[in-house]
Design goal:
Rossmann fold; single chain; 6-stranded parallel β-sheet; alpha/beta; 6-stranded mixed β-sheet; 13 helices; transcription
Length: 342
């Protein structure tokens, strides 16, 4: 018996009762097809078991069906910090639903950014998601200037030369709610382990903290603010500095849960009880927050949803509509999760 013939585009067109071009438009995601026709073509594809030739499709559409997620941090931090795991889960779920592949990359040095910029602007991906951006990051403007669809995780740190889409968290509001919680508990010497000053999240969480202090008429002396790097060790180092400069502090807002864990460790080593001597509020609501001793009061940010919204905005707007797409900004709400630490 001869080998069964592999289904072709023409066979799908005959089964669906449409032209070959219509089948191509359905396969390539064109909006110029009626819902009924699209369903008929998809039914024919399923019945025949037709598999599109991706290589041939790429020659016609110039699409790779691949999206890059670039984390502007060292590789070790990508796997150490829970924030990035949530982003990857959210991104991956949406891209899978859209039939797109995910390429994950890290870049922190100037050389990393240059090499990655060359690759990403060379037609190897359909679009790029950028997270954990610092002020010295050249990729947003370089890629947008090269016509590569881009979505940022977080607001741009400075007005970009080229308009870009972004998805952010309400970091100002979230941080303000954390500090208001400490104020409401009667604390008056409230310190903060702020995030990096060269990142939008670091700047915005510090701003929210300061706005809450100002609302309450509380002082904000320089010795009560130390910047960390969103890591456990960074939080521990910052807390040692704070205790040396302001030993009478009675509360701390840490701009990430990882830093809050370092703060907690340092306070314990210094013989300070939490929350009796020093109340503590973190930011992120990571899985570890509920299992610290005492459990950590923190700000929940919808990290997985953020990744999903970024991927959706990239696939459905930035890539689908191309350069004519109007830049969109999506800002997601936070909520305070009250536990025992503050």
């Amino acid at each position: 018996m001869g080998e069964e013939r592999r289904p072709t585009l023409e066979m799908v067109a005959r089964r669906a009762g449409v032209g070959r071009g219509t089948v191509s438009r359905v396969i390539n995601g064109s909006s110029r097809v009626s819902p009924d026709t699209r369903e008929a073509v998809r039914a024919a594809i399923a019945e025949l078991g037709y598999v599109p030739n991706r290589a041939a499709r790429a020659l016609v559409t110039r699409r790779t069906d691949t999206v890059a997620l670039v984390v502007s941090e060292p590789e070790a931090r990508l796997f150490d910090q829970p924030f990035f795991a949530g982003i990857v889960r959210g991104v991956s779920a949406v891209l899978t639903d859209r039939g797109l592949q995910l390429l994950l990359a890290t870049a922190r040095t100037g050389g990393d950014h240059e090499r990655l910029g060359d690759y990403l602007s060379g037609g190897h991906v359909d679009g790029v998601l950028l997270v954990s951006l610092h002020t010295d990051d050249p990729l947003p403007d370089r890629l947008a200037g090269a016509g590569v669809p881009v979505v940022l995780g977080g607001r741009p740190l400075y007005p970009p030369r080229h308009p870009v889409h972004y998805v952010d968290i309400d970091n100002v509001g979230g941080a303000a709610s954390a500090t208001r919680r400490l104020i409401g508990a009667g604390r008056r010497r409230i310190a903060t382990v702020a995030g990096p000053a060269d990142m939008a999240a670091g700047q915005d969480r510090l701003r929210g903290h300061r706005e809450a202090l100002a609302e309450a008429g509380l002082p904000d002396p320089p010795e009560l603010t130390v910047h960390g790097d969103f890591s456990h060790e960074g939080g521990a180092r910052a807390m040692r500095e704070l205790l040396e400069a302001a030993p009478d502090l009675d509360a701390v807002f840490a701009a990430s849960d990882d830093m809050a864990l370092g703060v907690l460790r340092t306070l314990r080593e210094a013989g300070r009880r939490v929350p009796e001597d020093v109340a503590l509020v973190g930011y992120d609501d990571t899985a570890a927050a509920a299992h610290t001793d005492p459990p950590l009061t923190t700000v929940h940010q919808p990290t997985e949803r953020m990744g999903g919204e970024m991927a959706r905005l990239l696939a459905d707007t930035a890539i689908a509509e191309g350069p004519d797409a109007k830049p969109q900004a999506v800002v997601l709400d936070t909520r305070l999760v009250v536990r025992a630490s503050g």
